[in-house]
Design a protein that fits this description.
By secondary structure, this protein is mostly beta strands. 0% of the residues lie in helices and 55% in strands.
């Protein structure tokens, strides 16, 4: 079955950077829209960024200028480069893929930003 596997999370100090990766099996990312979402403890899941098949990218307002979503189709992997991290960025980060809706989700990777 389709699997999305996130990696790259960890503990980082405020102001630091992390790059998350999302690798897919039995799914070719170039045929799908891919998004990153996050969920902090006690909060609802929220949109972070997306990369459409068309090549367009979108970001939540609070991530603009700090986060960058990109694809490497040769590796069938999508990345989320996160810079200038803040304690409020602490959450589990999930990648998702879909063609009309996000049908496939990964298990998530924990990002913790210390102050």
């Amino acid at each position: 079955q389709v699997q999305l596997v996130e990696s790259g999370g960890g503990l980082v100090q405020a102001g630091g950077s992390l790059r998350l990766s999302c690798a897919a099996s039995r799914l070719t990312f170039s045929n799908y829209d891919v998004g990153w979402f996050r969920q902090a403890p006690g909060k609802e899941r929220e949109f972070v960024a997306s990369s459409w098949r068309s090549g367009r990218t979108y970001y939540a307002d609070s991530m603009k200028g700090r986060f960058t979503i990109s694809r490497d189709n040769t590796k069938n992997t999508v990345y989320l480069q996160m810079n200038s991290l803040k304690p409020e960025d602490t959450a589990v980060y999930y990648c998702a893929a879909g063609q009309n809706t996000y049908s496939y989700w990964g298990q998530g990777t924990q990002v913790t930003v210390s102050s």
